[in-house]
Amino acid sequence: MNNYQLPIDGNWNTADIIAVSTLVDDVLMAYEEGIDCQKLLADYQAFCQVMPAKSEQKTFDRDLAQQTGYSIYQTIKQAQQATRKQLRL
Q: Known InterPro entries for this protein (predicted)?
């Protein structure tokens, strides 16, 4: 995995930062190695608790996609439609 810079909100606490970075790691893992769909979707729910506004999520996703080429939205969409336990994109 390459280095990337997460846009951290100054109001986030340690748990929030961990939730966001865990989802980012999950997305990268889905593309590079594969990940359990249930874990990915659970971590996405935690991410949504930190960033409940869809506009904020879209901005974050766009920034991540520019840095990594991977989309949170597309990854979650694939996980929700998956018929297998593991997701590999």
A: BH2638-like_sf (IPR023324), UPF0223 (IPR007920)
